[in-house]
Amino acid sequence: MTTATSAPAGSALRPAAAVVAGIVSMCFGTSFAKQLFPLVGAEGTTTMRVGFSAVLLLAAWRPWRRRITARHAGALALYGVAVGVLNLLFYMALRTIPFGIAVAIEFAGPLTVATLSSRRPLDALWVGLALLGLSQLLPVGARSAPLDPVGLAYAAGAAVAWALYIVFGQRAGRVRGPDAVALGTAVAALVVAPFGIARAGAALLDPALLPLGLGVALLSSALPFSLEMYALRRLPRQTFGILLSVEPAVAALAGLVVLGEALTLAQWAGIAGVVLASVGSASTAGRQEA
Fold first, then answer.
1. Distance between CA 24 and CA 178 in Å, rounded?
2. Is 177 left (phi over 0), alpha (psi -120 to 50) or beta?
3. pLDDT in tens, 108-146
4. pTM summary value
């Protein structure tokens, strides 16, 4: 039986390309989503993204074919709340800080989970490198570029939500299986909908905006998820983690190209530090696993 780790090198090209394509799709889709902020606000944009994503994922997975038990419901509720809060806080952060910086700060969440679940001394190096990178992004020095503290706080909250998303997502996946994503996203839509309705009201149902919301959901959620699911079945977890680690850099490029968000040299160096820390953590994780 051929496995992802024993397959020829060329067989990994397509799933690796799928991961990169998913990252590019998510980053540019999120950049386009930010252009909806003047029309429906960050809250309304989040509601449209998560709501349309839930519809697409429910149609794809059709989870109603399996009964939802009380055990399933509890795990799915925690997972869905984490998904909703993660999306809402991240989009709130994007109102006032650059996309690449928001993603780099958000990456502190999964890095923390990886570190706390490990007993390897080498992880201290990756934590230090990540902290060094983050220090270049946060306004902690006299020469630091000014950044909105409220936006930074939202990004830090998104990092915490991402960590919870990983923990609760693993539990939901164990008790429910692959369609946990569709059900969790449906719960997330219910979580963020009140904020979107309070901010945007009837504008969420504007026929001129619905195609934009659907496009954002496709580019930033449905398509990346599908590509990542394809890749996860064919790549070692270590390789997948390394590829995913480039997301902050791609986000910074998308912010520059689509939104004109130019970063300072120190901020680019900070993003590079977070990317290297994530790559290092992912690349050494596989060597230590039993």
1. 23
2. left
3. 998 888 777 776 777 778 888 888 898 888 765 545 568
4. 0.87
